[in-house]
Design brief:
Blueprint: H1 19-28, E1 42-43, E2 46-50, H2 58-75, E3 81-85, H3 91-104, E4 109-112, H4 120-131, E5 140-144, E6 153-159, H5 168-182, H6 185-188, H7 194-198, E7 203-206, H8 208-215, H9 222-228, E8 231-235, H10 245-252, E9 255-258, H11 289-292, E10 300-304, E11 311-315, E12 319-320, H12 323-337, E13 346-350, H13 356-363, E14 368-371, H14 379-384, E15 387-392, E16 396-399, H15 414-427, H16 431-442, E17 446-453, H17 456-463, E18 474-475, E19 478-479, E20 482-486, E21 493-500, E22 504-510, E23 516-523, H18 527-549
Parallel strand pairs: 3-4, 3-5, 4-7, 8-9, 8-10, 13-14, 13-15
Antiparallel strand pairs: 1-2, 2-6, 5-6, 10-11, 11-12, 15-16, 17-23, 18-19, 20-21, 21-22, 22-23
Helix pairs in contact: 2-3, 2-5, 4-8, 9-15, 12-13, 12-16
């Protein structure tokens, strides 16, 4: 990837999104359902787009919301719907439009007290808490967020009664119905004015913040953190959790300082990401320059993205930890310090997450559950506790409560962040030091991801690639052990291919939004070996695609 000369530097004034112009585009843009890029499209994390590109407009939101209302009726989901939104500029107007449709359809809606922003994991937590012990009248939820995407983007996610991201079977139905509604939006969508929706008998206020904060002591050992008196720094990156951290510190009497309390829809306080874009990615060293610069001011520091479903851990010893590194530390620690967790519960990871986790779980006699990219694949396992942990290389994770029961079935940035404080307090070592110790025992992996241009036709071929089409027997000097096009845990298509050897692997997957494919690769034999893996990975994929063409 080509790194922008602006990467890691403070955002310049000319980069900032014109918020009034963006919101005007949201209300005035009319998407054309016959144009692919302007249709409703649910990816791994809901529908995302920008009003500037006619891919996230008022019509999209009212169509999706009405489609969800139809889906709820079909599935007899008649409990409350928990609704939240983040700090992106398009989230508030999208929230208003969502309320207009939900109220018109007589859906019981739970919105935050004081019109507070609501993080993604808090919505999942609320759904599961309400549904616990119930068989009927189940709750579901909507989160309006494009996650860590740039300030000009909007996003919309649906969480069914399972509490986590909706599966493809659900999103396909909602997407199809929403696109049909787009063609005749005013005839089939029920809607009332926003002010009337707020006063509707079906609209209720819910104390998301305190309900969530007071329950954190059941998943993190707050006594250990408090008694250790370690100092913590947190940067909410201007996101939906910005007003959650001080109540957490006050409730549990923690030495925790919020280093930035600013909420600004232009996110002008950010340092620029690798590609010259403003992006609130807590796993990016470029976006995290401010907190990295403060690493010696605290015993442990952390940040979360805009909807607080991703984490970034900053240590004194190593600075910002690569997500793969921290997930390895977290899993190793949790499996040794959660005695009430069932020994039969497995550890979930995606196919592009580090193989170090495989080695750690094997040593600790735990089953590994490897799935395609997307947190939705962990939902059922986290819910029935057959999984005690689910994590992905893009810094998303959730895990069980202290007693082994379910916490959330969506990604939760708060708990991995607070776990880093528990680890530091309990072991007297920060996670960076512990990662080094793990590599001394299991080997030190090096990891990279690259992007290669691909036509839509090539991307489609890559998705449909079979193991039989790859004729290579070796990869970077090692015998190929496995060629996977389906995930080992659930046999679901991975949307590409993964090739593994004794000390390395690569996975190739097409992008869902750009004309590129991505190669993820890892080696336990050093950077030169990793370079060979990536080079040969490109050759293997190209040869397979050419052979498929022939």
């Amino acid at each position: 990837m080509e790194i922008s000369p602006l990467a890691g530097k403070p955002a310049e004034q000319k980069m900032l999104v014109n918020v009034p112009k963006l919101i005007t585009s949201y209300y005035t843009g009319i998407p054309d359902a016959s144009v692919t890029d302007q249709r409703v499209a649910f990816g791994t994390s809901g529908h995302r787009g920008s009003a500037f590109k006619n891919s996230f407009n008022e019509n999209h939101i009212i169509a999706i919301t009405q489609a969800i209302c139809f889906y709820r009726k079909e599935q007899k989901i008649d409990g409350p719907l928990y609704l939240g939104f983040d700090t992106h500029a398009l989230s508030a107007p999208a929230f208003a439009n969502t309320m207009e449709v939900l109220a018109a359809n007589a859906v019981e809606v739970m919105i935050a007290e004081r019109d507070e922003y609501t993080p993604t994991p808090v919505i999942s937590h609320a759904i599961l808490k309400y549904n616990s012990g119930r068989k009927t009248g189940l709750a579901d939820g909507i989160v309006i967020t494009p996650s860590h995407n740039p300030p000009y983007d909007g996003g919309f996610k649906y969480n069914p009664p399972s509490g986590g991201p909706a599966g493809t079977d659900v999103t396909n139905r909602i997407e199809k119905k929403a696109n049909k509604l787009l063609q005749n939006i005013h005839q089939h969508v029920k809607r009332i004015p926003f002010e009337k929706a707020l006063k509707a008998a079906t609209t209720h206020r819910h104390d998301y913040l305190n309900t969530y904060v007071k329950d954190l002591g059941n998943i993190i050992d707050m006594d250990v953190v408090r008694n250790s008196k370690i100092s913590m720094g947190v940067d909410p990156l201007g996101g939906a959790g910005v007003h959650y951290w001080e109540p957490i510190a006050e409730h549990y009497h923690l030495d925790l300082k919020v280093v930035n309390e600013v909420v600004d829809p232009t996110f002008s306080f950010m340092t620029v990401d690798w590609d010259g874009q403003i992006r609130m990615d807590p796993s990016s060293s470029y976006a995290m320059q401010r907190l990295i610069g403060m690493k010696n001011s605290f015993d442990i520091s952390f940040a979360c993205d805009t909807d607080h479903d991703r984490h970034g851990i900053v240590t004194k010893s190593a600075g910002l930890l690569n997500p793969n590194h921290y997930l390895s530390v977290a899993i190793s620690y949790l499996l040794k310090h959660r005695p009430q967790w069932a020994k039969t519960s497995a550890v979930g990871k995606t196919v592009v997450t580090t193989q170090l986790i495989d080695r750690i779980t094997a040593k600790l006699a735990r089953q590994l559950y490897e799935v395609p990219v997307g947190f939705k694949w962990f939902v059922d396992g986290l819910l029935d506790t057959s999984l005690c942990f689910g994590g992905e290389e893009s810094a998303g994770a959730s895990f069980s409560r202290l007693d082994g029961s379910v916490w959330t079935t969506d990604k939760d940035g708060f708990i991995p962040a607070l776990l880093s404080a528990e680890i530091t307090a309990k072991l007297g070592l920060d996670p960076g030091v512990i990662y080094t110790e793990l590599t001394q025992e299991f080997g030190e992996p090096v990891y990279d991801r690259i992007e290669t241009k691909a036509t839509p036709e090539q991307k489609e071929k890559l998705i449909k690639l079979s193991a039989m089409q790859i004729k290579h027997k070796d990869l970077a000097g090692e015998k190929i052990k496995n060629i996977l096009t389906h995930a080992p845990a659930n046999d679901a298509p991975i949307g590409g291919v993964k090739v593994t050897t004794e000390n390395g692997w690569f996975a190739a997957r097409p992008s869902g939004t750009e004309d590129i494919y991505k190669i993820y690769a890892e080696s336990f034999l050093g950077k030169e070996h990793l370079k060979q893996i990536i080079e040969q990975a490109q050759d293997i994929v190209n040869a397979a695609l050419e052979k498929q063409k022939a």
